[in-house]
Amino acid sequence: MGASHESQEAMLLEALSDKVLHQLPPAVWRELFLGSGRDSIHFEERELTLVHADSAVPAGQEGGATESFYQELQRINTRHGGRLDPYVNAAALVTFEDPAAALRMARELQQAAEGVALRVGIVSGRCTLAFFRAQGRLWCTPLGRQPARAAEVASTALPGGIVVSPEAFEPGEIQVRTEFAATRPGFLNSEPDLSSLALDAEYEGIDIRC
Description:
By secondary structure, the chain is of the alpha/beta class. The protein has a single domain, classed as Nucleotide cyclase, GGDEF domain (Alpha-Beta Plaits). Helix content is about 35%, strand content about 25%. It is built from 5 helices and 7 strands; from the N terminus they run ααβαββαββαββ. Strands 1, 2, 3, 4, 5, 6 and 7 form a 7-stranded mixed beta sheet that branches. The longest helix has 22 residues. It is globular, with a radius of gyration of 18 Å. About 15% of the residues have low confidence.
């Protein structure tokens, strides 16, 4: 059991090293793996929902609609309580404890993406979060299969659309669409599981693929 745990942690450390090395400044990697930051690393397994957004404009490109979008992304994420992954090859990758909050954020993100053609994917499942301290701040990033799955689901969406993976739904709830109209009383204050959302939606931009 001990050897297996050590092997799993070694793989997680390798995955974290690779992610930090390729997506953060070199000074962060050196502090984390060659300096005192190594002691701050720890991993947690959680049931999470991930929102992945891709755009036709390369992530991080400044100017015009893209700059405005990233400003909106920060604001929307703060309101919905997600963890925004600061280093990912996407327009956005956000983790949530609550799947309904993830769905609400994805919908609002699409509404705010004027001039940026987003394709959004949402997945739920067991995920490993890596926590560490570097450069005087606490960092958090998801590792494992789920971030890649979220990207794959997003790739199936049409520009301006949202695709939700099926694992949050009960068997038999297939090919439904969800509504986010302001006329639905109480929705914004509720915390339902995705499987409890309305099936008679008017908004045509959200698909649940089964």
